Amino acid sequence: MNFEADAALTASLFAVDADALGGICLRSSANPLRDQWLHLLRDLLPPASALRKIPCNIADSRLLGGLDLAATLRANRPVAERGVLASVDGGVLVVAMAERLNAHTATLLCSALEQGEIHVAREGVVLRHATRIGIVALDEGMSDDEFAPRCLLDRCAFLLDFASVSARTLLIPLHDRAQIDAARALVPNVTIETTYVQALCATAMTLGAGSIRVSILAVHAARVLAALDGRLAVIQEDAETAGRLVLAPRASVVPEMQNGDAPDNAAPPAEPAAATDSAESPPRREEAAREPAREPAREPAQEPAQGAPADMQQMQDLVLAATQSAIPSGLLSQLRAHSGPGRTAGGTTVGRFGALRKGGARGRPAGVAPAGAERSRLNIIETLRAAAPWQSVRGRAAGYKTGMQIRPEDLRVTRYKQHSRTLTIFAVDASGSSALNRLAETKGAAELLLADCYVRRDQVAVIAFRGRTADIVLPPTRSLVRAKRSLSALPGGGGTPLAAAIDAAALLASQARRRGESPVVVMLTDGRGNVARDGSKGREAGQADAISAARSFGAAKISALFVDISPRPHDLARELARGMSATYVPLPFADARSLSRLIGAANSSRPT
Amino acid sequence: MLASARAVFPFSAIVAQEEMKLALLAAAVDPTIGGVLVFGDRGTGKSTALRGLAALLPAMRVVVGCRYSCDPEKEDAFCSECRERSAAGTLKGRLAPVPVVDMPLGVTEDRVVGALDLERALAHGEKAFEPGLLARANRGFLYIDEVNLLEDHLVDLLIDVAASGENLVERDGLSVRHPSRFVLVGSGNPEEGELRPQLLDRFGLSVEVKTPSELDQRVEVIKRRDEFERDKIAFTTRWKRHDDNLRRRIVAGRRLLSSMQTPDPVLETAARLCMLLGTDGLRAELTLIRAARSLASFEQAAQVDVSHLRRVAASSLRHRLRRDPLDESGSTARVERALTELFGA
């Protein structure tokens, strides 16, 4: 089965029952192929149903609805305004740039999908609206850590990745609207035998494919496939196709093929990326990876109630094989990257990556202002107060008799301020020289600092540098557990790419600043850089690059703390700290407690 | 309460997740336990269970016409309006369903605490108070989905009201206070952010849910979900008997609760367990004993014994352990360790 056919089939399936299939994540740049797919979907959906596109930074008031200001004032009574979610009921909502969706908006969308209705309680308006919708998330993420929020992906039946396909590919519709309509009428009556449910479920577990919701979606996709074919019962082919379309793209584990072309276990070896993953519990994944080997022995014993265990096993194998065939071989590393920490962070903290919100519509109220162009919350009492003194004048002028007259210039909105969040970036030297000295102590100090960050509800990120590169082992997160794990899983050894580390810290810090956060960098190193920026070894080039990196870091005016972890403090480290305009603390003289005091000081003295 | 347009998945049809179901039932029998927090993986039926709970709750008596659902029997908990009315004459009562208020996502503060009645302000220029969700939740349950994503200023609000049982409104030129005693029920995914310790403390019980790892269970979950989606009415009718049965047991449990004896050795064991775990204050111990008593009543036991204690220990204590960032093992493991130490494996 080729990709174009699958893409077209997905459009057909989605057009039949978008509501129950939840959504589709289209991972693709903005290109003609994506437009083609959307057109195809539009053509297949009933003409009356809505297909509406929203920007990823849509305001709550537009998504949910609320008080219609103009109409309210005109009518002298509260008039509710329907939000986008309610207005696309029975249709499809297209979310542009879903990888930039913030966590809050994603949660709203998920709840609308899950409940099939939204409950609005805003600005004096309390309403319920039906929202039986399907969502098409247009994910334009380029790198492994840019993803549509995971909670949303969990509710999307299909994930289509156009990255590997030519943008000039032609999509040929597989069904026409009449067939789709017929299938829609049929879906509720399609039955599925337990064996197929079991097969899909087992496949999902074997592949480590997401939560149980994904299996539910796969089962439903199988039923829709049967309906598209005009059948009232799911057959094996439907189950196989459903496995391929729904489960395969989410495989986080590539199981060993039955013919055993990969002798070593597919379970992730103990490398830092896998060890830092706390999102899905690692034991479960490993277990899933080992499953195929164990299955033949275990399954029949587990299924005494099911009449034909042999058939059952066979069925599972077939569905699994079909699903697996959709996973290109050699994809393991990429898969792991998707389900690993990068993906998690992309999915869960993505909300914090939204544009800098000044005077947004959230946070603590911080006074009142005349209503401007931006949509904000109306402060009724202040508005009435502003209008009150003019009533008699306006009444006379207009010749009206009753009612309060409110003019646009009276409108007052509440302004809010949001605390700028602090991001503490730990850059930990895990090189050989440092490991030799006191990597364990460094980790200890970092952990104490982490505890402090937890108390202050800061976000933390961890950069580890060793060998040739500096890697972000933990993208900004508020989860202390993950930070702890990423630290304790940190291996030591190799050169000291100090320049790369300083650059990486500066980059992360400036990204944070662009999001409106206040970054603080804590460098834990012995300052003996011996790897140059280009990755080549050599003390001299390494030192020179480190100094230049430190200077450009200093020029960026990022608050920093330089903790010298070498046994004896030395001038080189001091010079680096000076270059970075960082507070220099030699660890031999600093116990963890005083460090934590210092970091607090760096926080409060930072330029805001 | 507004009627929901969609049928709710029956509580009794939820597969496995015994700890979660037990905690919710314990809170239903004895609301003074103080709420349940359900934290765990995506797609484990957290919100399904919490929404399903509403159908299990037996009706309660409320004062006719009271906006805060005051109990006609409990004069000391009256709102100011009921106090005035009862001074003027007797109050009439009626049966009403226990409110289970779902805190909508993106809710604005004015709808939570209550605010100026817009309609009357605009049309008649009157300053009147329109109660919010906290008023509706009085004597019932307040459910917050994705509780860890709740905006900070709303959390501040809840923390105070959940502790005092009273909502103080000072806004829009209004000054109102009314009773707001509710059982706080929250769910969330810990990956998406941590909960403030103060809010954590407001939850009596805390349970962790995981995706079932047994194939059979998963298949059963999917089959039931599929049946439900295909014909909601038929499905809920089929499970109604089980839900009714649970409701009867809750009612019977509530009746038994006040006379349920907790022998001294059990109290001592609870104290020893809390000391061993170093939980702060009496709150942990109190919750532990209340939860055990509630469970014993629900199960119509003769008296509370150590086995009840043991079954509710993890949910009562795991979120109250002092946070030790250097201890790698989770809090559940720490409670288990302490239990093993006390009782043996």
Q: Which secondary structure elements does this structure contain, and how are they paired or packed?
A:
The complex is a heterodimer of chains A (608) and B (345).
Chain A: H1 3-16, H2 18-21, E1 23-27, H3 32-44, E2 51-54, H4 60-64, E3 65-67, H5 69-75, E4 80-82, H6 84-87, E5 92-95, H7 103-115, E6 117-122, E7 125-130, E8 134-139, H8 150-153, E9 158-161, H9 177-186, H10 194-207, H11 212-228, H12 236-247, H13 272-275, H14 282-302, H15 309-325, H16 332-339, H17 341-348, E10 364-370, H18 380-387, H19 391-398, E11 412-417, E12 422-429, H20 432-456, E13 459-466, E14 469-477, H21 480-488, H22 498-514, E15 518-525, H23 539-555, E16 559-564, H24 571-579, E17 583-586, H25 592-605
Helix pairs in contact in A: 1-3, 1-9, 9-11, 10-11, 10-12, 10-15, 11-12, 12-15, 20-21, 20-25, 22-23, 23-24
Chain B: H1 18-29, E1 36-40, H2 46-53, E2 60-63, H3 80-88, E3 93-96, E4 100-102, H4 109-113, E5 114-116, H5 118-124, E6 129-131, H6 133-136, E7 141-144, H7 152-164, E8 166-171, E9 174-179, E10 183-188, H8 197-202, E11 205-209, H9 215-230, H10 232-257, H11 264-277, H12 283-298, H13 306-317, H14 331-343
Parallel strand pairs in B: 1-10, 1-11, 4-7, 7-10
Antiparallel strand pairs in B: 2-3, 5-6, 8-9
